[in-house]
Structures are given as C-alpha cells and as structure tokens.
Amino acid sequence: MNPLEISLSLSGGGIRAAAHIGAIKFLEEQNIKITAVSGSSAGAIVGLCLANGLKSDEMLRFLKDLEAKELFVLNYKKGGFFSMRKLEVKLKEFIKVRDFSELKIPFWVCVTNINSGEHEYINHGNPVDYVIASSTITPLFEAKKIGDECYIDGGFSDNLPVRPLKHYPQKILAININPIVGSTPDTFKSLLIRSILIVIRSNSIPSKRLADAYLEIEGVAKMNIFNFKEIDNAYQSGYEEMKSKWSELKKNL
After folding, report:
1. Where would I find the beta strands (DSSP E) of the chain?
2. Which of 35, 131, 142, 169 sees the fewest Cβ atoms within 10 Å?
3. d(CA 158, CA 140)
4. CA of 165: how far to CAs of 14, 25, 127, 138, 203, in Å?
C-alpha cells in the first residue's frame, strides 16, 4: 500500500515551533509522505529543514542547540533592537543549500514586504535568506534586506501560508501553534508578545478555511515564544495532540 501523501503548512510561533517537530515525528511514524511544505517565521525554519530532507530528531537537536544569546544579538544599527545575524550563520552552516531548487521537496516561505505591506510567497533564491526574513519580528529585530527589497516577519501578513500549496494535487494539513488563552498580560514584554500573537492569529483565519485539515496545538498556549526551556514541552504537545486527533484529521486528507 502506497503511503498517504500530503502538503503541510506550518505557522510561526517562536520556540513553540518545537510543536511542529513533534507533530512531524508522529507523521513519520505513520509513514506519511510530505510532498510540499510552506511556512512563516519559525514555521519556515522547520519547513526548510523538512524540505531539505531532515528528520524530526535532527530538527529537534538543531533547535535545542540554539541559545538565546544567538537570537538576541544587540543591534547597533537603526531598525530593531536585535539582529538575527548569528542565527543566520548557524542556519546556513546547518542547511547547506544556496537555492530553493536544491531542496528535496517544494518549499514556500511567506515574507512581508515592508514597503508594500503585502505578503509574498517565495520559492526562488537563497532559502535561508528568506527564512531569516520571514522570522524578523519587528520592532524586536531589524528588517532583512534581500536585493532591492526589505522584508519582515511573514506572520504579520499570513502566518499560516496555505495558499501556495493549492498549486499541488495533495490535500493540505495546516498546523497552527498560536492558540490564544491565559491571563491578561501585566508586563511590557508579555503585552507585546500577546499583541503580536493576536495580529498573526487573526490573519490565519482565512488560511484555516483553505486547508483540508487543520490542527491547533492547544498545549503551547501559555508558553512564551522566546522561552528556550519550553522546547521539550512544546515538542511533546505537538506529538501527543497530533496523535490524539490523527484519526479525525486523516478523514479529510
């Protein structure tokens, strides 16, 4: 019997992206073949790893090897408090491809063009450059310039990029790692993060309707998107919730 083939769309959500890896681990165990993938922000990082042929265990090791000091590098230029240059270097060392055409399956990254304010779905050029661009949450991080254009986090315009996957015949599974629950934020940092999550969640609603199957990982709802200590918990939530809801999801795939 041939394995079930699907396309996969992954939302952004910082360190919560470990939940994507947990969900992918379960799909691997079920022998599900992913034939195309798209992502925004941290979901684009996981998507790039998947498109490059990496397994969930390798992705998890990469994520756990990251440190906050590699993400929050003080930026002495204008345009953001922090720079992602160290993360970019580390990702280029890990993913040794220079063009989307070198990837094993089709991969689309959503970025937001800071000049037009519109989303762009990219599958040409250097994939790491665009993944970094898709992950630059302004004003925390400086925008990423590629050629003549300047980009910011893809989550600001489409945090769950299902649309580019509609070009393929396989059914689409979309995974969202940004449920909104919990108490009212009471600090500047928590209020900023909650505000960002509200913005990116709202633009995911149309994409949710385009997907054939949709999974929202509820177990990550109270996790700080920059708390590296939550990686294992997020991974486990993704695995367990995909496992518990797979029989229903599979009916639509």
Report:
1. 5-10, 33-40, 73-74, 82-83, 107-113, 119-122, 144-146, 149-152, 171-176, 213-216
2. 169
3. 19
4. 22, 21, 17, 27, 17
* Token pair for 208: 């949710």
Name the nearest CA neighbour of 120 among 130, 128, 112, 129.
112
How does pLDDT run across 151-173, given as a tens digit for each residue?
Answer: 999 989 999 999 999 999 999 99
SS3 104: coil
Q: How far is CA 40 from CA 14, 43, 127, in A?
A: 10, 5, 12
The predicted-structure confidence for 93-137, as pLDDT tens digits, reads as follows 999 999 999 999 999 999 999 999 899 999 999 999 999 999 988
Strand 144-146 relative to strand 119-122: parallel, antiparallel, unpaired?
A: unpaired
Select from 200, 125, 126, 188 the least CA-distant residue to 157: 200
